[in-house]
């Protein structure tokens, strides 16, 4: 087996080059991802309701909670990834070639717990 590739740049240089502050990067990502997720899931659930000919009761009772739940799932997934990316750098001090998997897999598993069980 070959040795892991060691990379020494900071999380600012690799993960969030628009701001040097990790907390600002996380909040920026959270705001942007949530805004886009509302647009995506709102449209998706609206179209699914129209195609499946769900009545007004669906839109009054379930549309908003389902849209918010899925949007929160996507927001947590995106926000926690950049947070874990920065946290890894602060705890360990370096990045590995496969660091994306080390940071991404636990976050994906955690965010899946929030998403609707039927999906």
TrEMBL record:
Signal peptide segment: none
Transmembrane stretches, start-end: 33-51, 72-90, 96-114
Matching InterPro entries: TMEM135_N
Transmembrane protein 135 N-terminal domain residues: 10-119
UniProt feature coiled coil, ranges: none
Keywords: Membrane, Transmembrane, Transmembrane helix
Name this protein carries in UniProt: Transmembrane protein 135 N-terminal domain-containing protein
């Amino acid at each position: 087996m070959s040795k892991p590739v060691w990379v020494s740049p900071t999380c600012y240089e690799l993960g969030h080059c628009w701001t040097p502050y990790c907390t600002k990067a996380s909040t920026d990502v959270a705001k942007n991802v949530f805004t886009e997720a509302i647009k995506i899931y709102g449209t998706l659930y609206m179209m699914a309701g129209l195609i499946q000919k769900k009545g007004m009761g669906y839109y009054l009772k379930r549309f908003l909670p389902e849209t918010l739940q899925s949007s929160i799932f996507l927001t947590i997934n995106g926000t926690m990834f950049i947070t874990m990316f920065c946290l890894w750098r602060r705890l360990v001090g370096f990045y590995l070639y496969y660091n994306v998997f080390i940071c991404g897999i636990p976050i994906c598993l955690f965010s899946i717990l929030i998403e609707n069980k039927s999906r």
